[in-house]
Amino acid sequence: MGLKKYWWKILCAALLMYTVVAGMLLEIPYLPKLKESIRNLFYHVPMWYVMLVSFLMSMIYAILYLSKEEQKYDTISNEFVTTGIWFGCFGMITGMEWASIQWGSPWSNDPKQIGAALTLLIYFAYAILRNSMAGNDKQGRIAAVYNVFSFALVIPLVYLVPAHFASLHPGSDNKPFEALKTQDHHLKYVSIPAMIGWTLLGFWIFDIRYRTKKLQQQKEFNA
Amino acid sequence: MMLKTIRRCYLLVVVFLIPLIASSQPQPETTNDSAALLHQNGQIYLVVLVLSTIFAGILTMLVVMERKLNKLEKELNK
Predict the structure, then answer these.
(1) Residue A34 lies in a domain
(2) Residue A123: which of A93, A95, A94, A158 has the closest Cα?
(3) A186 touches chain B (CB under 8 A)
(4) Residue A130: pLDDT over 70
């Protein structure tokens, strides 16, 4: 109990507190176009990492569900999708806010914007498909199969396809992690803890969602 | 009783100390115009204070939710 169980939540709180304070006060290298708005790197970009990690986890649990047929895995998979959708929406909204100042318009049909929007639409469809079916067994299996296919689409939509078009997003020229490598090392002092901290927050929110769902299921089972 | 109250409050104390520590950090040297503008009158620290207060509040909410869930789980699994 205690520290053993909660260490990653404490780490999450500490990293995010550091991100909020250091992200605002860090000395920024001179970037003629972005200027101080590069600070959004610590808040907007990690939203997408959380979304991708959540969707990846949900795909892993979807496969586990298909192979082991345990109700538990289906619930985990579904809760990860919901968490991912929330963070994806945050990423989309903050991205549009940033773009309306930086690119002059909230929507400029940038390949990455379109890719991200399609990703979100695919997962909205997942939620609708899942909720439109009753009966745990069939619902779970169809949702899991759909989940695996949708994650297979997310990678090309977010990484591969935008890499082949000119984009307003920096660092999207073919190499996804190039952006991180070419980052000024001062920015990394915050961007890497931020990435870890936000991802842990995603897991924390998933944890709360999953445990609530479990209690609900228990209540339904007992009723 | 006393111990319980202290245990309840220490989180709040920590939460309110963080922004104070943060705001007492030395002002970084400015290297360019936009950075100079940002730090010109030190009001960015006010924004950082506000942001960290809100964030600390959100974290407190998460912790409270966590505790409620723990209690419910214990009750139901008795």
Answers:
(1) no
(2) A158
(3) no
(4) yes
Q: Is A25 a domain residue?
A: no
Neighbours of B59 (CB within 10 A): 21
Residue predicted with more confidence, A82 or B2? A82
Cβ A215–B35 below 8 Å, yes or no?
A: no
Domains of chain B by residue range: 2-24+42-76
pLDDT category, A58, cuts 50, 70, 90? Answer: very high
In this complex, is the C-beta atom of B72 within 8 Å of any C-beta atom belonging to chain A? yes
pLDDT value at residue B2:
54
The residue among A178 and A198 whose pLDDT is bigger is A198
Q: For A79-93, what is the mean pLDDT?
A: 94
Q: Is residue A27 domain-resident?
A: no
Whether residue A207 lies inside any domain: the answer is yes
Measured CA to CA, the distance from residue A205 to residue A54 in angstroms comes to 11
Find, among A95, A86, A4, the residue nearest to A53 by Cα.
A86
| Side-chain half-sphere exposure of A26, counting CA atoms within 13 A | 25
Q: What average pLDDT does chain A have?
A: 87
| B18 chain-A contacts, CB cut-off 8 A | 17, 21
Domain of residue A100, residue span? 43-222
Least confident of A34-48, A49-63, A74-88: A34-48
pLDDT bin (cut points 50, 70, 90) of residue A171 is low
Determine the Cα–Cα distance for residues A141 and A130; give it in Å rounded to an integer: 10
- How many structural domains is chain A composed of? 1
Scanning B32-71 for CB atoms below 8 A from A yields 32, 34-35, 38, 44-45, 47-48, 51-52, 55-56, 59, 62, 65-66, 69
